Amino acid sequence: MPYTLHRGDARTVLAGLPDGIIDAVITDPPYNSGGRTSAERTTKTARAKYTSGDAGHTLANFPGDNRDQRSYTRWLTELLTESYRAAKKHAVAVVFTDWRQEPCTTDALQMAGWTWSGTLPWIKPASRPRKGGFKQSSEFIVWGVKESLDRSRAIYLPGHFIASQPRKGRVHITQKPIEVMREIVQIAPPGGTVLDPFTGSGTTGVAALREGRQFIGVELSDHYATIAEARLNAEENGLTQDDFILAGPGDTA
């Protein structure tokens, strides 16, 4: 099977992975952000923080999004340290974040042993304007390498991405665009293994399979793990994501 999906806490699962098996770590951890104050960031639900009051969907919340910045930095450092141990030489780590947590994320990446190699903007055209101020239309992708890049690979990837969150068939509050993830997973060599400790609805895994990579995912939420399993199974069996959307996760798993 080209993918494995673990249900459970990422720290526990990663500790059980062998050394040196991962070609790329590509992940979108809970940002533990949102809200104007520390109290709002650590008490509000993910849905309350990341969706507007008039959002036309009822997507489920996800756990693990109520840490303060120092505990978030320590937690992310521990996860990226285990990922580093499980990674091969020349492996690349790619971590999504927002403007509030970008400093914590770059600190965690470096404290875990990765060599910070840059920050890419992900520009979201469909984001809302802000009255009296600048539009918050960007998130960020922090990346680093284990020791050094593999210069023998003739691959040239973009330095920024422009894409809005999916509207049709959206199944997760913070779901990433499949077209962006399909480009990012190419940082792993063909046939290589991509690790995502925060699989969510499985978009990184779907992108990895679609681009001829292996995938190892971890997801704490049973609700989202079920959706991810269904999407990965649909992809492996040649079904489109429209097939998954129309059938529903219970019918395609």
Automatic annotation (TrEMBL):
Q: Which PROSITE patterns match?
A: N6_MTASE (PS00092)
Residue ranges of domain DNA methylase N-4/N-6 in the record: 22-229
Its cellular-component GO annotations read:
cytoplasm
GO BP terms in the entry: methylation
The family classification in the record reads:
Belongs to the N(4)/N(6)-methyltransferase family.
- In short, the EC number is 2.1.1.-
Q: What is this protein called?
A: Methyltransferase
Recorded hits in InterPro entries, A to Z, give: DNA_methylase_N4/N6, DNA_methylase_N6_adenine_CS, RM_Methyltransferase, SAM-dependent_MTases_sf
Q: Which GO terms describe its molecular function?
A: DNA binding; N-methyltransferase activity; site-specific DNA-methyltransferase (adenine-specific) activity
Q: Which UniProt keywords apply?
A: Methyltransferase, Transferase
Transferase as a keyword of this entry, yes or no, is: yes
